[in-house]
């Protein structure tokens, strides 16, 4: 594994969060952006069963964000459409699982 396999996704994630923080794009636009980021990342380099990591991250992110919201531990998202959280948030969790795993593989295989 080379560094570009996790550096490019990290740059994409940072860019996403800058766009989100500046409010340049709405919730659906951000969801499309992160879906495109996942697709482009996988077009450049896909590792075996990374889709499983994405799904686990989606589920974990959904349970944590939506579940904690119902328990009263929440961030406040204005105009969030998915049970009080933005559509893109669980997707970002899934993509984060993929990127963190890639970084871990890179670090542990470095000699």
Annotate the secondary structure layout:
Elements (H helix, E strand, L loop, with lengths): L3 H19 L4 H18 L5 H22 L16 H22 L2
Tell me what you see in this structure.
The chain is mainly α. Helices cover 73% and strands 0% of the residues. The protein has four helices and no strands. The protein has helices at residues 4-22, 27-44, 50-71, 88-109. Helix 2 packs parallel to helix 4 (88-109) and helix 3 (50-71) packs across helix 4 (88-109). It is globular.
Put the structure in a nutshell:
With 111 residues, this protein is mainly α.
What structural category do the secondary elements indicate? mainly alpha
Please report which band the strand proportion falls in: under 5%, 5-15%, 15-25%, 25-35%, 35-45% or over 45%: under 5%
Helix proportion? over 70%
Termini separation comes to 12 Å
Let me know the largest β-sheet: none
Query: Radius of gyration, rounded?
Result: 15 Å
Overall geometry comes to globular
Oligomeric state of this protein: single chain
Helix/strand order: HHHH
User: Which ranges are low-confidence, i.e. pLDDT below 50, for 5 or more consecutive residues?
Assistant: none
